[in-house]
Design a protein that fits this description.
The chain is α+β, with helices and mostly antiparallel strands. It contains four helices and five strands. The strands form two sheets. The protein has a three-stranded antiparallel beta sheet, covered by helices on one side. A hairpin with a 4-residue loop joins β4 and β5. The two termini are 36 Å apart. The protein binds zinc ion (ZN). The site of zinc ion has 7 residues, from α4.
Length: 152
């Protein structure tokens, strides 16, 4: 049985998020306000560097983040947070697997795929929970998009 496009999308999005989070500077990440000679807010994570810290977004070379809100947003989404979210979403997806059931396929009684946990004879798979998870990662039912497109 081939997977529904939303499930394929979600699976790919989780793999990509994990793939990019694993080699990144470990968290938790924090922020530091601009210094007198700094150019912007800095984001720091644990790693090789001064006192076990490593600048993720540093202002030393004219970098940094202009807005405090942006710096805090970046720090909130550190690799540890992403990996925890990926693990939880995979667990949710594993609990909401398709199962065959006698139900209504829109035309009449038929064998349909429905969610083993929350499905019904009128609710084809993927269930609302799986669709919402996919939407949270960027899925749009109206058109298939690749997860987290690169911005160049
Ligand atoms: Zn479900």
């Amino acid at each position: 049985m081939s997977k529904h496009p939303a499930v394929q999308f979600l699976t790919a999005a989780l793999a990509r998020a994990e793939e990019t989070a694993k080699p990144a500077t470990p968290g938790p990440w924090g922020v530091r306000p601009p210094s007198d000679h700094g150019d912007g807010w800095e984001v720091c994570g644990r790693g090789p560097g001064h006192n076990g810290s490593r600048w993720v977004v540093g202002a030393e070379s004219g970098g940094g983040v202009y807005d405090e809100a942006d710096a805090r947003h970046i720090a909130l989404h550190d690799p540890g947070a992403v990996l925890r979210r990926v693990a939880a979403d995979r667990q949710i997806l594993a609990e909401h697997q398709p199962v065959k059931a006698v139900g209504y396929d829109g035309y009449g009684v038929a064998v349909i795929d429905t969610c083993i946990l929350c499905g019904s004879q009128y609710a084809p798979y993927p269930c609302r929970t799986v669709l919402l998870l996919a939407q949270a990662w960027g899925w749009e039912a109206s058109h298939a998009v690749s997860p987290q497109p690169e911005i160049e």
